[in-house]
Write a structure and sequence with these properties.
single chain; 464 residues; mainly alpha; 3-stranded mixed beta sheet; two-stranded antiparallel sheet; disordered C terminus
Length: 464
Amino acid sequence: MTEETSTNGISKSADWLDAETFDKDPSRLSGAIFVFLCFVPMIFTVAYGGVDVWALGFQAIFVGVIAVLWLLESFFTKEFRFSTNLLQIPIIGLLLIGLIQLLPLRSADVSLAVSAVSSLSLDAYSTRFAIIQLLIYLVFFAAALTFINSRKRLQRLVSGIIIFASVMAFFGILQRLANLEAIYGLRPSPQAIPFASFVNSHHFAAFMEMTIGLTVALVFGNAVKKDKNPLLIISAVIMGIALILTSSRGGFLSLLGVLAFVITANLLSKKDSEGTSNFRRNFAVVGGGIALVLVLFGAVFLLGGDQSLLRGVGLQNASADLSSGRTHFWQVALKIFVDYPFLGVGLNAFGTAFPSYDTWNGNFRIEQTHNDYLQMLVEAGILGFLCIAGFIALLFKQTFRTLSKTSDVFRRHTAIGALAGCFGVLIHSFFDFPLRTPSNTFFFLILVVIATVSIGFPKTEARA
């Protein structure tokens, strides 16, 4: 364990600080911060995924409260605690790119079918909003890395995520079976297909991918008491059914990726005392994965969701363009990237640049490429893409280090499940823009913390 506390009261938590010792006697303010960290993602999931402009204001308020409590906690404890986790650097890098894009360094260019701008961003207004959003995410992420720092908090967080996701999945199934056209019966979404509280059903599928990974990993890893396993299995089945009912092809592919990741991680980590593979255990894990998929398929058919399942596996509307014009959007995005390779057109400015390159009739405003990686290339150039690639590389590296450092079964499999959930949404991001929904991004960042944060555990392999 390493802890550096300077004379001016600044305390840094290094990558492998024994965080349980670091916060052995947490203050009430620290506890309040943890509560806010748990509830912010849930609140904005219920609030239509947090996609509305008014929701951005409340996100700033809630995260601002976290920041104020953090400062108050530092004032009363006489030290400012923060994490030095390198995963924060790529987010800071994107912030800096956004700020550079706002600089008035562009000469007037009337060749574009947009208003002449002096900033490097073609849409400085949207880029400012993107910077604000990134700053909110950064403060939230930094606080989560600092204050999710004990076994008890990790257990409560994981339990809360699974319970909340199960409730949302069950609500989504009921809404789907009732054929409600409006979310909560209050908000219609004529230009999208809603599911549960989400305006976009594909983004609800992404939410399920992340949370089902955490749930399945605990079951397959035998990381909880046996009396809790049935509840986890029921939760996983409900989440899987809800995901399939969204008819999201990207979601279905990501679900298979999550299950494959969890199964592979279990096969690689389960060794007996002689270091050879435990055949019975491996067989149970693989069989359990296959059984889960079969149960999901059967349940969806019984609920009358056969059309959703057929579309999800790509057996319906197969002759159509790759989901409503994605290939065209990708071609246009590549053309824009060629013209703006280094810093891009500006964060959130794809919708402004698109019409000048579009060869369609222009009846619809296209704001997303339906590929988050390609959109990052367009909006932030090569430098922004390197930030994303660096974040993903650090995520996997630090999670693998967490797995190698801990001997606790619960800690190991929460890390596996969290990384599996992240892996699923990273797959989905090749076909959609799930992390452009704020609530999904909050949950993604929480999963990153669960996968990577260093938490002190007893050496005995205790189960939750």
